[in-house]
Write a structure and sequence with these properties.
The chain is mostly helical. It has one domain: CDP-alcohol phosphotransferase transmembrane (TM) domain (Four Helix Bundle (Hemerythrin (Met), subunit A), Up-down Bundle). It is a multi-pass membrane protein. One of its GO terms (cellular component) is membrane. This is CDP-diacylglycerol--glycerol-3-phosphate 3-phosphatidyltransferase. It comes from Hemiselmis andersenii.
């Protein structure tokens, strides 16, 4: 039994934290299918899938640090899984929610554009050995938390049979979640500004 469970805390690529990241990636198509499914409690189901994915994002990092099994593969896989889930949720919600597509489409396009730009910046800074200067800061972590809560709320507010049983009205949940999504978008732009401000001297350096 001990030998069978050793893989969970090994320093190889298939330890438990990395497997959780892979599971999060596999949950992406599940979220899409459930979003377009004609089922009762569709919003609650989508919210549950997204919330579980968000919790694994925290849990795999916690385990990697606790067991001291952080790896290059895990450092690559974890943010990829996170961005795939968030981007997918933003795209499907932007496609139409409560008949108000622009409400979510605008912050979604800003957020996804920001993620692409910052990811490209980090990759370029890593190539010149300066990735530490653009590592995730406290603003980026606050953005990620607000984003997860906002998207969970927007998914939960999806109109579907059975949604009337929520303790808060659908419109109120939608409005508060949308406000939090915009707050996370502002934080995303603020943190991106900080990253590019630090990298600007290197970016504009003349050889």
């Amino acid at each position: 039994m001990a030998a069978m469970g050793a893989w969970m805390w090994s320093k190889g690529p298939w330890n438990l934290p990395n497997v959780l990241s892979l599971v999060r990636i596999l949950m992406v198509p599940m979220l899409v299918v459930l979003y377009y499914a004609d089922i009762r409690h569709r919003g609650l189901t989508c919210c549950a899938v997204f919330t579980v994915a968000a919790l694994t994002d925290w849990f795999d990092g916690y385990l990697a640090r606790k067991w001291k099994i952080s790896s290059a593969f895990g450092a690559f896989l974890d943010p990829v899984a996170d961005k795939l889930m968030v981007a997918t949720a933003l795209v499907i919600l932007a496609a139409g929610h409560h008949g108000r597509t622009l409400d979510v489409a605008l912050p979604a396009s800003i957020t996804i554009s920001r993620e692409i730009a910052v990811s490209a910046l980090r990759e370029w800074m890593a190539q010149i050995g300066a990735r530490e200067s653009v590592k995730v800061g406290w603003m980026g972590k606050c953005k990620a938390f607000a984003q997860m809560v906002a998207l969970s709320g927007l998914l939960l507010s999806l109109p579907s049979p059975g949604s009337s049983g929520l303790p808060i009205s659908i419109d109120a949940l939608y409005a508060s979640s949308l406000a939090l999504l915009w707050a996370s978008t502002v934080m995303a732009l603020s943190s991106a500004y900080d990253y590019f401000k630090v990298a600007l001297p290197v970016l504009t350096k003349v050889d």
